[in-house]
Amino acid sequence: MTGHADPPLLDLQEVSAHADGAERPLLDRVALTVVAGGVTAVVGPSGSGKTTLGLASLGASRNGVRLGGRALLAGTDLLGLSPARRPAARAGTAAHLPQHPETVLDPLRRAGGALTELAALGHPVRAARKAAARRVTALAGLDWEAVRRRFPHQLSGGQQQRLALASALVTGAELLVLDEPTSGLDPALAHALGRTVRALADGGAGVLLLSHDLRLVRETADRVLVLENGRVVDDGTAPDLLGTGAPLSADEPPAARHRATRELLAAEHGTGAAGRNTTPALAPGGGGVAATGVVVRRRSGDPLAGPVSLEFPPGSRTALLGPSGSGKTTFARVLAGLTTPTRGDVRFEGRPLPRRVDRRTAELRRVVQYVHQSSAESFEDHRPVLGQLAYTARLLRGLPEAEATAEAMEAAGALGLDEALLHRTPGRLSGGQLQRCALVRALTAQPALLVCDEVTSALDTVSRRRVLDALPRLLAPAGTALLFVSHDLPAVRALTTEAVLFDAGRCVRRGPVEEVLPAEGGPHGLSPAR
Amino acid sequence: MRAYLLRRSLLAVIQCLVVLVAVFAVGTLLPGDTADVLRGELGTPEQVAALRTQLGLDEPAWTRFGHWLGSLLTGHLGNSLTTGLPVGDDIGRRIGVTLLLGVPALVLVTVVAPLLGTVSGLREGSRTDRTLNTAAVVLHAVPEFVLGLLLVASVSLAAGLLPATAIGMDTAALIAQPAVLVLPVAVLTARHLCDLARQVRAGVAAGRHGPVAEHLRLLGTRERTVVLRHVLPGALGPAAQQFARCVEGLLGGAVLVESVFGFRGLGSGFVEAVQNRDLPQVQTYALLFAGTAVVVNLVGDLVAFRLAPRREVTA
Amino acid sequence: GGDTKDGGGGDRFRAAFTAGGSQETLDPHVAPNFVDQARAKALYDTLATYTDDMSARARLAESWESDTSGTRWRIRLRTAEFHDGNPVTAKDVLHSYRRAADPATGSPSQVLLSAIDFDASRADGERSVLFVLKAPNFEFPTVLAGPGTEIIPDGTKDFREPIGSGPFTYVSFTPGGTARYRRWADHWDGAPHIAELEIVPANEESARLNALLSGQVHYAADMAGASVERLKKEGSTRLLTARRATAQQLLLRTGRKPFDDPRLVRAVQLGIDREALVRVALAGHGEVGNDLFGMGLRGYPEDLEPRERDVDEARKLVAEAGAEGLAVTVETSSVDAAWEPAAELMARQLREFGLRLTANTRASSTYFSEIKTKGVAAFNTTSTLPVSDFLQQRVRGGAARNQTQYASEEFDALLDRARTTRGEQERLGLLARAQKIARDGSGLLVWAFSDANDAVGPSVSGLRAAPPNSHDWARFDRVRVG
Amino acid sequence: MTPRTKTDAVRTRARHPWIASALLGVPVLVALAGPWTAGDAPSAEGALPSQPPGAGHPLGTDVLGRDVLWLVLHGGASVLGSALGALLVGLAVGVPLGLLAAGPRRGFDESVMRGLDLLLAFPGLLVLMTLAATGHRDWYWLVTVAGILQVPAVARLVRGAALEPGSRTVVEALWMQGHGWAYIHLRHLARQLAAPLATDAGGRFAVVLYLLASANFLGLGLPSSSPDWAVLIERNSDALFTQPAAVLVPAGLLTALCVGGNLLVDRALARRRTDR
Ligand SMILES: Nc1ncnc2c1ncn2[C@@H]1O[C@H](COP(=O)(O)OP(=O)(O)OP(=O)(O)O)[C@@H](O)[C@H]1O
Ligand SMILES: Nc1ncnc2c1ncn2[C@@H]1O[C@H](COP(=O)(O)OP(=O)(O)OP(=O)(O)O)[C@@H](O)[C@H]1O
Ligand SMILES: [Mg+2]
Ligand SMILES: [Mg+2]
């Protein structure tokens, strides 16, 4: 650990953030330091200002947000510099992993080239760049040869996440600001990432970790700050604040931790079994949505997924599990009619659905609804979210506008979203807020099958609890079947009865959740049985 | 990619054929024929009829087209009806002139337009931007001949700096005296340059505030790199199409500039061929233009394809 | 010669013309455009040439004489050589005329030459030719000066390396491009003053003008309206203005409705405002026409009253013909810059007495062949020609170029009598009578004569204004530079 | 704390674009109000042609001896109308075609684009000449054809610009939500295309303008005597130096129009970007 004589790598003093038209500041005089060799974590409920803080610490802000205070990066006050001069101050010193990595990867550049170019920031010698790019790719958990020639859109969600991480690492920065680094990763990768972060810190880097993943924070952080409504409400070492991860003991003095911290910790455990209890009995005689013999290949003929045959009877709750890049999203997209299968089809009540969503009538579009993995990208950026949400019920169920809006608002409320939020444009919502909005949009269609692709990845423990609790209730009225694509095993346990395990595009195991999943607290991976 | 290229090349041949048939069909719709044009006002009906027989114009139209196509397949472009000489002769002479005008203009446009567009787009709203942008629009909106004539009057006639016209000069003479090319190339460039620069400008202005650019800056990437490696390529996607139009326009001959400055390039050649109702020649021009257009479009498509990769998953 | 230095060097003379494009040849017998004539004048000679009033003057011919009937003409040649050193002989003359008289050749003088009975005509020694005509014609000498009657060596079929007897020898030429010539020291009329002549094409008037103003050429042919004004202002250059050089005509097809009604023809004759037309359509560069071709030429009846505008009379005539509000289409094109303004103006003038005129603009290259068969009214121009030729070819009933379909036995008979009349005065008198008849009935309205303008650079001397087709127009062997 | 992260684009917002508005406004005003302010007939009919400004003719006369001021006042509406009309035809056909081509159906894409290539490869001049020769001389033919001639270029531009936004997640989400083709393409994607399209349209307006004008010399479209600005420029081009007003006044008006329009479009685009 470094001595206190060194100035901290990052020193935020009285940093505030204000948005036009927001009644309270997004950040309220936040102070924090990150020292070389240390990991400072910021946790807090969704919308508490983590992302805003992460950006502010690098002297940046999203559209319409004004910053105040001082952000000293290696002694330089970034906020005191003109925006044009900030990049130079950051170059090679600080790097950022954004919460939505898919939006920041240049769609025109292949992964290898983009990484090598960024390596120039930390590696003046040209020859060293390629090697550095290779190294960080491995460090981020990707196979260099496999991704080198790929464009970002040819990568799975988790792979994009890791590529963005690699781009942050490759700059050789001393300070890393990581915003939800594990959100798209399977447990094994998340665990590996934790080790990587720790190793980096031990190697002398400073890390500012913004995350709702308490497990990751426990494994890596030296210091933890709890943020609520833009204010730091709790501050301490990781063990002090977050404990060991075991359920809170009832005899702990309440004063030891702030209410917000306790809420976060409380929500981490004891996921309500309510969802499973209300599962209606499977309707006999089939019905519902079924995929038969679905195969997806690339143009070049490489298989991406399949052959897979699965049924989703009304009211069923199925989990789709598998390591990152195993073809989960690909399969889910086939169900939704977003990816055309090379072979096989998707049927509803025995009749094949048109393969592409734009060929489906409103009636048929309602059958399968899909929540994108990159939910933040699935909104039109120039109009308020509420109007966008209301369209589902208007267009697919023919409700009048007022009714549709009320229904969307109600569902949003059930998922913990304030009405005020919904009147903003998507650019002014946090990652977790948008993710829930996307869920609302699909839910209000009251589909026969709802496909959720990683809908808890951006949620803190409290919000996640609310979602897991509310979801069964929201699905029940229409007898909607659920396909829950996720790396979040506790959530899977809480929500689903059946599970399907994917590996390399194939369905390698299926059955009741308890049989497919490893025991709770066991090894982090999902080792496919062969 | 190779399969695609092959398919497109095959298609290109078919496209050219279709254009040829269409051009011929349209050509036969035009009133009068070569005999009428050649004998003109003074021709008596006997003279015109004699010439018509001599030129083979009394044969049915499609027989003539068949002949022409047949000779095309054997590598001959046929003989001009008006001169009786191989059509290649005249077009060959004119291509040189058009290339001398078009290629420098093209090079200028290619180099300067992205430059101006980028400078302007990066300073969107600034005085530099407004000045450049206004100049571009003015140059684009002023009729070409007005621009040409004003330039000649000021630069050549008043100041005596550059030759006023290129009349009586063939390719060799033009090469020997490149000063003649300066004004016409400037006029030619002006229009296309403005088009392209503004397109690049719009793309740059849009791309420089995009999430990717902001993120690269967050990582500490220098502004120059952000612009050159990310913003500009993104802006060039739509501009590539504009550029293709520009190549076509420049290589297809520029009728107006040619006539203002007295050049004999492909543009005036084509007009002349149509006026003379010299169908073999018209068709050869059409083949040339269609070929250029098809090739340019193919290249434009490949560039656009690279600059806007599609999400392809399945066959 | 790749040397393209600006003019003014003293020995090279550059002249810019509107050119015919890639269809051009150096075949003098196919000479549809003025530039062809200019080129032919450099390379070749004709037996005779036109003076400014279009009477024939001897050139290669030393003299001519006819028998009393006017059917047998003996032409004596002067001593002259072709560029290859061979003398110009009677045989060459016969070959040239035979070739030009063949319709397949396309000579503008073909109709006139076809009056020669070539089987009966013969060479009468080395330097004397006897032409026998199919019918008597005392105006025959004007044929000898016609365009497309140049003398080429016997047997010539190919004009890629042309040989003539003109003041310049051939150097190089590309169709539609520059034609280069060199002075021929052995020309019978004396060597040209300039060493080299270049005839360069420039179809755009502004290009010719700019080239002249910047000194790139010494001579710019065919300057119109605005360019003329600019040259006048310019001062340093000199305008060569041939007055009344072009007859501006409106052709009314008397063989078709509605102009088969002579009252309507007369209404138009009376109703158009010629003054205004000259002022506006010709920008003042012309003179009011009297519906007769050839003002100022030999054979033009000068003593006729000018036509006075009489709108009331015209209105009455239209009413009598029951044609009020009748829509008439006039064919025009961009062949002549004056036509479209004239059409526009006439439309307004005709409206005053009840005719609705609309213009139909046709493509310029096929305009003349189209109006041969289409439409009821059309614009036309004719540059200077001998009056008798004009009457024979354009006004006589059934003539190939008679586009108004005028047919009058009286007129034809007068023409025939004139041709066979030996006495000059008597002949011209008959022609004048014929013209008076045609003026009212032929439907060929000469509403104005426009000037022809050429311009020369400040260093040029030895050129004077002359009407196109005449001897002195675009003749560069007497030119001096410097 | 005072806001600091102001970009230059934001700064321009404060100022009203007086110059651009005036540049656009004057020609439009002249075009729309001109016919009322000037009488029905040109004053002093049959004056000398191409006379420089002087008594009775504040802007001189044109080649037909008509008062240039009167012509200018009367000739705006037709030029704006027909150029806008042609532009609209080009956009109305080209934009949907380009959007369709950028859609997921490769086969359709290929056939549309290759078909349009044909049109692009076909010499436009020949089309105009043929129209003139076959008697289709009315202005609406010209406007339609001039518009159609713009289609391939517009469609290609749209397709190129729509490929990337068209494959974004949000488009998929919109489909799934039940939106139709029209909403997704004409409302959602059109926003993305607005920048390149508006930029292109600004330039294309001038192209169409002069295409229409030059077609007059083929005897197409408006009669050569009409007061239309583009026709005026074309007809008086020879007199550029002796009576410059007849060319430069209408040309200046058209140029001002183009410049003003383009500058305003640029501002609107810049503003939208910073407002997001
Ligand atoms: N431009 C803006 N205008 C108004 N409010 C904004 C704006 N940007 C963000 N917000 C609000 O500020 C709060 C903080 O957002 P931020 O993205 O920092 O949250 P977060 O802690 O990262 O949340 P999550 O865990 O969901 O990602 C949110 O409630 C968000 O809705
Ligand atoms: N357009 C494409 N072209 C080529 N390969 C693709 C494309 N899309 C996805 N892939 C590859 O297909 C595989 C499966 O991707 P998919 O997105 O289905 O994974 P996933 O199971 O959802 O992963 P994650 O958990 O990371 O989201 C990945 O290896 C990915 O790289
Ligand atoms: Mg966040
Ligand atoms: Mg996925």
Which features would summarize this protein structure in a list?
heterotetramer, A: 530 residues, 6-stranded mixed sheet, globular, D: 276 residues, binds magnesium ion
CATH class of the largest domain in chain B: Mainly Alpha
Distance between the termini of chain B: 14 Å
Count helical runs of chain C. 14
**Cofactors and ligands:** adenosine-5'-triphosphate, magnesium ion
Q: So what's the overall shape of chain B?
A: globular
Q: Termini distance of chain C?
A: 22 Å
| Number of structurally distinct domains of chain B | 2
Globular, elongated, flat, extended or rod-shaped: what is the shape of chain C?
globular
CATH fold node name of the largest domain in chain B: MetI-like fold
Helix content of chain C: 25-40%
Strand content of chain B: under 5%
CATH architecture of the largest domain in chain B: Orthogonal Bundle
What radius of gyration of chain C results from the CA coordinates?
A: 23 Å
Low-confidence parts of chain B? none
Taking pLDDT < 50 over at least 5 consecutive residues as the criterion, the unreliable ranges of chain C are 1-9
Largest sheet of chain B, if any? none
Summed over residues and divided by their number, the pLDDT of chain B gives a mean of 83
Work out the helicity level of chain B: over 70%
Write the layout of secondary structure elements.
The complex is a heterotetramer of chains A (530), B (315), C (482) and D (276).
Chain B lengths: L1 H28 L4 H6 L5 H11 L5 H13 L13 H36 L4 H15 L2 H15 L12 H6 L2 H29 L3 H8 L4 H29 L3 H7 L4 H10 L3 H29 L8
Chain C lengths: L11 E6 L16 H10 L4 E3 L5 E3 L2 E6 L5 E6 L12 H12 L8 H4 L8 E2 L4 E5 L7 H5 L23 E6 L5 E5 L12 E6 L3 H9 L5 E5 L1 H10 L3 E15 L9 H10 L2 H7 L5 E3 L22 H10 L5 E8 L5 H13 L3 E8 L4 H5 L5 E7 L3 H9 L13 H11 L4 H18 L2 E13 L3 E2 L18 E2 L1
Chain D lengths: L7 H7 L3 H20 L30 H7 L1 H27 L3 H16 L2 H10 L5 H28 L2 H8 L4 H35 L13 H7 L8 H32 L1
The site of one magnesium ion (MG) has 6 residues of chain A, from α13.
Can you characterise this structure?
- The complex is a heterotetramer of chains A (530), B (315), C (482) and D (276).
- With 530 residues, chain A is of the alpha/beta class.
- A six-stranded mixed beta sheet of chain A has the order 6-7-8-3-9-10, sandwiched between helices.
- The radius of gyration of chain A is 23 Å and the shape is globular.
- Chain A starts with 9 loop residues before the first strand and ends in a 14-residue tail after the last helix.
- Mean pLDDT of chain A is 83; it is low at 272-285 and 521-525.
- With 315 residues, chain B is an all-alpha fold.
- Chain B folds into two domains: 2-73; 94-307, MetI-like fold (Orthogonal Bundle).
- Chain B has helices spanning 2-29, 34-39, 45-55, 61-73, 87-122, 127-141, 144-158, 171-176, 179-207, 211-218, 223-251, 255-261, 266-275, 279-307.
- Chain C has 482 residues and is of the alpha+beta class.
- Chain C has 14 helices and 19 strands.
- In chain C, α7 (262-271) packs antiparallel against α9 and α13 (409-419) packs antiparallel against α14 (424-441).
- Helices cover 71% and strands 0% of the residues of chain D.
- Chain D is built from eleven helices and no strands.
- The longest helix of chain D has 35 residues, at 181-215.
- Chain D starts with 7 loop residues before the first helix and ends with a helix.
- Bound molecules: adenosine-5'-triphosphate (2 copies) and magnesium ion (MG) (2 copies).
- One adenosine-5'-triphosphate (ATP) is lined by residues 19, 22, 26, 44, 46-52, 62, 64-65, 99, 212, 421, 424, 428-433, 458, 460 of chain A.
